Amino acid sequence: MNKSSGNAVEVRGLHVRRGTTEVFTSLDFDIPQGQITGLMGPSGCGKTTLMRSIVGVQKVAGGTVTVLGAPAGTAVQRRRVAYDTQAASVYGDLTIEQNLRYFARIIGAPRSDVDRVIEQVGLSGQARQTVDSLSGGQESRVSLAVAMLGSPELLVLDEPTVGLDPVLRAELWELFRGLSATGATIIVSSHVMDEALRCDRLILMRAGRIIADTTPDGLLAETGATDPDAAFLTLIERDVAGAADRHPASRREAREEAGE
Fold it and tell me: Is 82 strand, coil or helix?
């Protein structure tokens, strides 16, 4: 991949196996630069494994993942790609400020970044509190602040708004939109479908497969639904029906998954 392709990420034939479980057999998709792409789908559909593959920390059995023009996980990407995991990856016995100063030194980010990202995630009033004294939502925001240090070109955020109240979720989405406006590419995973409408593009997943690669408007238009939850359920029903047609022996299991 090169910059003229307009893609931050290109995935070809991705095959990931965990033990005897085939997570992905052959995934192919692109993620454009400078957009917010939502990875949506129920828990266990493969979102986190896909994100780990993009940042280069997931062992893959086959295929290629190219990120910002280089193979995923190469040293050149360490300051260009940031990954915010579901579990907060910060030190509980340090203050917010101390955590951010530590991680800023590791990646070579300017000292001024510390105050900037603390303010952006809305934690200026708690900057000198230890992480252990924070709520779960606040701790998640500290991890997000760490990911934002150094102004990475690609941010991969695994359910960054989980457990947050609606007001704070809306504020963080405004932050994501602002980062995107500066040219950053953002990949956000979620199983909360109303967040789909905040993305530029959607990759909808089920059982290790991509069942739709579309836009918010395209999702609603294709399904005829008026809200993203109903639209996604429509796509799942179509996918279940298609799986049953392709594999008649699994028709009963497909019906059970659909809740019939």
Answer: strand
User: What is the tens place of the pLDDT at every residue in 99-137?
Assistant: 999 999 999 999 999 999 999 999 999 999 999 999 888
Q: How far apart are CA 260 and CA 252, in angstroms?
A: 9
Q: By CB neighbour count within 10 A (0-12 exposed, 13-18 middle, 19+ buried), where does 59 fall? A: exposed
Q: Look at residue 192 and give its three-state secondary structure.
A: coil
Question: Under DSSP, is residue 26 helix (H, G, I), strand (E, B) or coil?
Answer: strand
Question: What's phi and psi for 54, nearest 5 deg?
Answer: -70, -40
Chain centroid to Cα 218, Å, comes to 20
Count CA atoms closer than 13 A to 94's CA, side-chain side.
13
Crossing angle, helix 112-120 and helix 96-107, to 10 degrees? Answer: 130
Residue 112 makes CB contacts below 8 A (sequence gap 6+) with none
Q: State the virtual CA torsion across 147, 150, 156, 162 in degrees, nearest 10.
A: 30
Q: What is the pLDDT of residues 151-176, one digit of tens each?
A: 999 999 999 988 888 888 888 999 99
> What is the C-alpha to C-alpha distance for residues 150 and 211, in angstroms, rounded to an integer?
35
The residues that bridge with 81 in the sheet, in sequence order, are 154
DSSP states along 123-156? -GGGTTSBGGGS-HHHHHHHHHHHHHTT--SEEE
Quote the CA–CA distance of 131 and 94 in Å, as a whole number: 6
> What torsion, rounded to 10 degrees, do the Cα atoms 219, 224, 226, 227 define?
-40
Our CA angle for 193, 29, 78, nearest 5°, is: 90
